[in-house]
Structure formats: structure tokens, C-alpha cells
Design goal:
Length: 241
Amino acid sequence: MAKKRVLVKFSGEALAGEAGHGIDTQILNYISQEIKSLVDADIEVGIVIGGGNIIRGVTAAKDGIIKRTSADYMGMLATVINAVAMQEACEHAGLDARLQTAIKMEQIAEPYINRRAVRHLEKGRVVIFGAGTGNPFFTTDTAATLRAIEIGAEVIIKATKVDGVYDRDPVKFSDAVKLPEITYEEALSEHIKVMDDTSIALAKDNNLPIIVCDMNKKGNILEIINGNLENCSIVKNKGKK
Ligand code: UDP
């Protein structure tokens, strides 16, 4: 029987902890233990991490001193810093992990080669995909969706600070209502910010379900993959599994 394969996306901010920037190794350690619980359950895992704890292109380019293209390359490099840290944390947890980057940096990582990535996954190695898509004007949400489709993942799990998708920002509005299941079209509507439009359109075109869940609830990701969708929201085509 084919093993389950998933792609988990963490934002860079998730690694920052209370400091709000940089990398909190305790959080990294927690994440790697969560990933280990998936691998121990025979699930093949790909990971994409953002770079927002270090730099975001849009922010770095906002006063025009740094061009957007360069700022985005800086953002992609930031994701590699996080990915190197994630690889170390996975190995510290006893996992085999490989880092592949969309921008070649051969002293640090393998280049992204789809067939090689799939082979690593088949061998039970965690594959971390760094440097986003390798192109400016994209986000790591889009990179995660793209890689998920390329490696044939069943689902993309966006591990966040909230336990699902709400009709309004739950941080700002105490009466925000959680939406357990929405369509891609609904996810594209303005007030719901699950992922950026490019990544949702790509997921929609390829019928890739997106699950949004709380990464800080221990065991949550494994439970979700095992079919318990109580503590998350799912974005998918109506009527599809
Ligand atoms: N980025 C990019 N192309 C990509 C992925 C990322 O240019 O394919 C840049 C972009 O500047 C982005 C930054 O890398 O702001 C960090 O990624 P992201 O903002 O998605 O990180 P997150 O919000 O998940 O921490």
C-alpha cells in the first residue's frame, strides 16, 4: 500500500517565538518532534519554511532603496537560513533529513531535483525545500503548494498559530466564526486570508486540499493526517474527498 505523503508549511514567524525575530531553538525542537511523530507513523514528509522572521521582500523594498527583486532574493535566502536550522533540528531528533534549494548553493544544500526529492521521501527521509520557488514576486505559500503538487503530496498542511480558517480575523474580532470547510473560491475572497491568491489558484487547478491548523497543539498534525479534522479547516473543491 502506498504510504501517505504530505507537505507541511511553517511560516518563518513561527520559528521566532516570543522574541518576534530570529530562531527560537526550542520551537525548532518542538517542530522536529512533531515531524518525527509523522515519520514514525510511516508518513512521508516534505517541509517548506518561510523567511518572515528574518526578512520579507515587500517590507525590505518598501522605501525604494532596495529593489523588490533584490529584496525578494534576500527573502529567499532567509528561508534557507531557516531551512538549514530545520535540517539540524530534524537530525537532532534522530531523523534523516535533506535540504534542497531552488537556488543552487552546493556547499550548503542539494539543488532541487524533483526525482531525487521523491527518492529521499521514499527512503523515509524528511525533505526540506528552501529558497521558495527561486523566483521573486512569489511567496513560500506558493512554493509549498508547488512542491506539494510536484512530489505528489495528498495534502498541504499550513501549520499556523490559529486552529483554522475564520470568517474574520479571530485576533481582531472576538465573534469571528470558524469555517471547518471552505471552497477555493471562498478562500480567494477578500476577507479570508488563508494563503495568497497564487497559491490557492495553483492548489485549485491541481485539486490539492489545503489544511489550516494550529501547530502549537501537540499531536495535532498527526491526528489530522489520520483523518480527525475536528481541530482544523480544510479548503477543497465541493464534493471532493
Ligand atoms: N520569496 C520569493 N519567492 C518565493 C518565496 C519567497 O521571492 O518563491 C521571498 C519573498 O520576499 C518573501 C520572503 O521570501 O517575502 C519570505 O517568504 P514568505 O514571506 O513567504 O515567508 P513567511 O511569511 O511564510 O514567513
